[in-house]
Amino acid sequence: MAIHFDRRAAAGVIGTLVFFGAWEALSRSGLVNDIMLPAPTTILQSGWTLLASGELLRHLGASLFRSIIGFVSGSILAILLGVAMAQLPWLHATINPLVQMFRAIPALAFVPLAIFWFGIGELSKIFLIAWGVFFPVWVNTYLGVRDTNPLLGRAAASLGASGWRNFAFVVIPGALPFIIAGLRVSLSVALVLLVASELAGAAFGVGYLIQMSQQVFRVDYMFVGLIVLGTMGVVADFLFEGAVRRLLPWYGAEKASRARFGDNERKAGQAG
C-alpha cells in the first residue's frame, strides 16, 4: 500500500513539474506575449515582492477573516435549521417552501442587494459567504438526520436510550457523514463568494488584488492572486480533513476500512 501511495505521489509531482515546465518554456519562447502569459518564475518574483512589502499578507488576512466568519456562521445556522426541520415535521411543513425558493436563487444574485443593505464593508461580504455556505450544509444536514437508519433508533431504545440520548448518540452520529460532506462542499462555495464579494467592492482582499491588478494591467499580480486562492482552497480542504480525522477518529477508520475492502475486492477480481 505504501509503495502504491508513493508511486501516486511521485506521479503527481512529475505531472506538476511537467505542467509548469511547459508553461515556463511557452512564456519564454516568444510564441506568446509574456506580459499576457507571464512565466511561473516571473509570477514567483512578483509574489515575493508583494509578500516582502506586506501587501499580500494584508490581502490574505482580510480574505481569511471574511471567509472564516462567513463559513462558520452559515454552517452553524444551516446545521441548526437542518436538524430542527428534520425533527419537527410542523416546522418543515411551515418553512420548507420558503427555504426551497431561496435555495433556487444563485447566491451571486444577492451581491447588489447585499451591498445596498450593508454597504461595501465587511458585513456584506460575510453575509454573502454565509448565504452561499448555508444551503449545501442545510440540505445535507436535513437529509442525514431525516434518513438515519430507524433500526439504530430501535436498537438504542431497546437498551434504554430515548429522548435526547437517542438524538445525541444515534441520530447525530448517523447524520455526521452527510453533514461533513456538506461542509466540505461549502468550503469551495465560500471561496467563490469571497472573490465575488471582494470584486464588488473592497479595500483589501485577494479578489480586490486581482481586480486592481487588472486595472493597472499587471497580469503577473493577477496570477499571484489566483495562485493564493487555489492555495487557500487546498489548505482549507487539507485542514478540514485533518480536523475530521482528529475529532472523529471513527469516521476516518470507517472510510479506511471501506477503502481496504474495495482494494481486496479488486485484487480478488484480478486474481480470478
SSE inventory with pairings:
Elements: H1 2-29, H2 40-53, H3 55-87, H4 89-103, H5 111-118, H6 122-146, H7 150-158, H8 164-200, H9 206-215, H10 219-247, H11 249-271
Molecular structure report:
- With 272 residues, the protein is an all-alpha fold.
- It has a single domain (55-271), classed as MetI-like fold.
- It contains eleven helices and no strands.
- The chain has helices at 2-29, 40-53, 55-87, 89-103, 111-118, 122-146, 150-158, 164-200, 206-215, 219-247, 249-271.
- α9 (206-215) packs antiparallel against α10.
- The chain starts with a helix and ends with a helix.
What is the string of helix and strand elements?
HHHHHHHHHHH
Please identify which CATH superfamily we are dealing with: MetI-like
Number of helices: 11
Largest sheet: none
The residue fraction in helices comes out at over 70%
Shape: globular
Name a few traits of the molecule.
272 residues, mainly alpha, MetI-like fold, globular
Q: Briefly, what is this?
A:
The protein has helices spanning 2-29, 40-53, 55-87, 89-103, 111-118, 122-146, 150-158, 164-200, 206-215, 219-247, 249-271. The chain is mainly alpha-helical and 272 residues long.
